[in-house]
Amino acid sequence: MTTIAVDAMGGDHSPHEIVHGAVLAAREYSVNIQLIGPENIIRQELKKHYTDFLSIEVIPADDVIDMGEKQPATAVRKKPNSSIAVAMNQVASGKANGVVAAGSTGAAAAAALFILKRIEGIERPCIAAVIPTRIKPAILADAGANVESLPEYIFQNAIMGTALSRALFKIDRPRVGLLNIGEEPGKGSTLVKDAYQLLSSEPNLNFIGNVEGRDVPDGICDVCVCDGFVGNVFLKTAEGVVKMVTSMLREELNRDVKSKLGALLAKDSFYRLKKRIDYSEFGGAQLLGVKGICVIAHGSSKHIAIKNAVRVAKDASEANVIKLIENMIKNYANK
Predict the structure, then answer these.
(1) Where is pLDDT greater, at 68 or 32?
(2) Is the dihedral of CA 113, 115, 116, 118 positive or negative?
(3) How many CA atoms within 13 Å lie on the side-chain side of 97?
(4) Secondary structure of residue 306 in the 3-state scheme
(5) pLDDT digits (tens, 9 = 90+) for 210-266
(6) Pairing with 80, which of 33, 74, 93, 248 sits 20 to 30 Å away (CA)?
(7) Residue 4's closest CA among 170, 17, 23, 13?
(8) Pairing of strands 98-101, 3-7
(9) What average pLDDT does the segment 299-303 reach?
(10) Contact 310, 33 (CB under 8 A)
(11) Prediction pTM value
């Protein structure tokens, strides 16, 4: 049985929403859950749920790293018994197959680097987020790990994103697009132009060239690569647009009796649409480039997002994403 360690104390709605989501995941996905944090607090939360016949452990961790920690890397070093550090150690020691954390992204990334270590050959890990498109989900890498980037980092983002796409979505040759302000090869900053040259020189990558932000939601590529600053802005803008459109649609559907009747008739269609575009359905982003599965959920995640983050970690572990990335990096390094 796949075991996922969950930082029960991370996020804006911890521990109640985290524990709730973990219980749902244990029930729906048949995984063993390790809830990490102060034992008495977690057990009090577990009493609110029916957990008979579920595989749920409580792993004690006395310290917590706050969401607003200004120096998360320093905090991780100073608090080796924090919930995020203990969760990472569960994976490093082979007692868990992956980690789910909704707390400080900086703390999760720092703990992963200190404890899990980088995959050999990877210069900088990246955050890979699964994003909805009109055709099927795509991968955005980097979604915020490296604000200041180099062409080599973007090239490695493409390798890791390709590996993740193959593992999760069973795509043999994922189409890789470089996020830019235009499709022409000469467009963009020096960073993007140099990254274009690296990507286009590798025949084993299915690089389709530059892609514009408006075309990514239309499914133009399976893997969209960029530096972490651009990727994070793109991701949060997309999340904001989805939230805005959903809110406006709800307002219009409740405007009058005729609209309410139409909404009732189309209820199933709206539910299916929500499942396709709601970011909570995608669970969280993966920190790629470290020797272990690490899923970073949004700080505002509630139980549905946490449940789905556990599913993402389970799927990545069972698809052996880490081994696939290691093999791809070795192949490129040996050329």
Answers:
(1) 32
(2) positive
(3) 20
(4) helix
(5) 999 999 999 999 999 999 999 999 999 988 888 898 888 889 888 888 888 877 877
(6) 33
(7) 23
(8) parallel
(9) 89
(10) yes
(11) 0.90
